[in-house]
Amino acid sequence: MAKVSVSLKGMKKASLYRKFEGKALRCTACKHYCIIAEGMTGICHTMGNIRGKLYSFVYGHPAAVNIDPIEKKPFFHLNPGSSFFSIGTYGCNFRCSFCQNWDLSQFPKEEANFSSQMASDLIRKRSGELSPEKAVELALQYGCDGIAYTYNEPVIWSEYAEDIAKLAHDKGLLNVFVSSGYETEEALDYLKHIDAYKIDLKGFREDFYTRNCGTKLSNVLDTIRSVWKRDKHLEIVTLVIPGENDDDEQLKGMADFIAGISPDVPWHVTQFHPDYKMMDKPITPVETLVKARDIGKKAGLRYVYIGNTPTENGENTYCPHCNALVVGREFYSINYFDIKDGNCGKCGKAIYGMWHKARITNL
Predict the structure, then answer these.
(1) CB atoms < 10 A from the CB of 138, how many?
(2) Strand pairing partners for 66?
(3) DSSP conformation letters of 176-227
(4) What confidence tens digit (pLDDT) does each residue in 6-39 have?
(5) How high does pLDDT run on average in the chain?
(6) Structural domain that includes position 83
(7) Of the candidates 106, 262, 309, 342, which lies 20 to 30 Å from 63 by C-alpha distance?
(8) Residue 337: exposed, middle, or buried by beta-carbon count in 10 A (0-12, 13-18, 19+)?
């Protein structure tokens, strides 16, 4: 058993765990359901069992803070053209070989052993400090429409996110989760003030998830279903990787699954660029992304977007009823908007989304 000498000063006791056997704890934040011995951490290495209680090492200690356009997350059906105060920490419960934020998400996995002391020391040494109150204050100061919990997997810092989100709601701000979709039912119940989820659907074979992410496809599908049933705004993103998840069978499987949730759920098919441990794959051809979009449309999806590369009309939103342009996008700018009270400005039919505000940013 590891010797525990971790200082509890400034730490936040986790809420998402329960007693297991002896002094061991079971974390209930994500679907790994890690069993954590005293003095040790779970898979994400951002929470540790200290004297029989689970503590978060990243609470109040972000690794990245920025102001981003909401389209960067990407959310296309939520306050187009708006800015969101964006927060991320170190750590992740996935180990994606193609991760584009690996310098945040995979630390301290490769640098630290599994002890609470080593993980907490390394995280605190690199991280900044930002209280929930200060985060909301800054979001308002910079004119943001809301707060995005992003860059790494936010469910592993649910306590920090929820404390910010509650204060944000009190000030009229929205809260969005940018996630890989491993939230437990316990976590979804706990995160009462999250308004919208962007969830990655990374592939449609169990072996893809096991080999590349260290997780299970079935668990992600269950989370997507649960988020939709909870009446949360939902958008799905698939990074299309040549030779990994770009075959017709997987693309059709993903499209059919999303359409089965609802044909209104937006699907973003985005271009892969070599990164982290997957440097041997080429950039996704635009033709493959166009094929994926066509497969999505054929499956009945009303809103399918091409991302990470410029394509003609690939990021525009069209009314699924009359095909009129309702939102025109150029990179992260909005150059056309014709949605009134949630309805198409031409035919008056409903357009799925949260259209509280829209900012025309490029005329």
Answers:
(1) 16
(2) 86
(3) EEEE-S-B-HHHHHH-TT--EEEEE---SSHHHHHHHHSS-HHHHHHHHHHH
(4) 566 667 899 999 999 999 999 999 999 999 999 9
(5) 94
(6) 64-108+127-314
(7) 309
(8) buried
